Amino acid sequence: MTSPQLHVCDTDEELARRSAEFVLRTARETLSSRSTFTLAVSGGRTPWAMFAELTQLEFPWAATHLFQVDERVAPDGDDSRNLTHLRAAIPDDAHVHAMPVTANDLAAAADGYARELPDTFDLVHLGLGPDGHTASLVPNDPVLDVRDKDVALTQPYQGHRRMTLTYPVLDRAACVLWLISGVDKAPALRQLMARDTSVPAGRVRAADQVVMADRSAADG
Description:
The protein is of the alpha/beta class. The chain has one domain (5-196): Rossmann fold. It is 30% helix and 20% strand. It has 7 helices and 10 strands. The protein has helices at residues 12-31, 45-54, 82-89, 106-116, 167-171, 186-193, 215-219, and strands spanning 5-9, 37-41, 64-68, 70-72, 95-97, 123-126, 151-153, 162-165, 176-180, 209-214. A 7-stranded parallel β-sheet has the order 1-10-9-6-2-3-5. It has a 3-stranded antiparallel β-sheet with strand order 4-8-7. β9 (176-180), α6 and β10 (209-214) form a beta-alpha-beta unit. α1 crosses α2. It is globular, with a radius of gyration of 16 Å.
């Protein structure tokens, strides 16, 4: 497979703006032929800046269904939850499909969330950790080998178990948008661009992948 398309941004502001413009353009292209746009989003600092930019644009929130790529198993409203920051960043009336990480039976909840997913996401946003993880597909976790479920649970990682989309659903996405910032991500970004399967991010096989990276990550 070819490497993802790489776009390098000189500032955090440019990264947020260009990423938001890409999401808006993808949404509009999708909605030109049907009535809904499906977007899966990851956590982290970088996407919240992108969403802040989106709220300044004429984004079709009413026609967009937002899903979570991954989530920590923690109480509602917890600051560690991706959902907490997502809801703070987008309009109150946005259609958000939250991962049910407070359920008593997490395995059944993961299966239920999988049934909510579209067959193919129009766009999936992914981040990249310094260790090469993406979503909550982390090194040496058994979740890396899950191929018969679209949503699965991890072992504890950085203090939390997590619910995450798995490779099969990421690989089916019409497009994957990577948002990557920080010099600490530079080695992992090189591995991603090389399709290095020794890191989890390098195993994502969606046909159309676009990387938006800041200068420090791209040149570090």
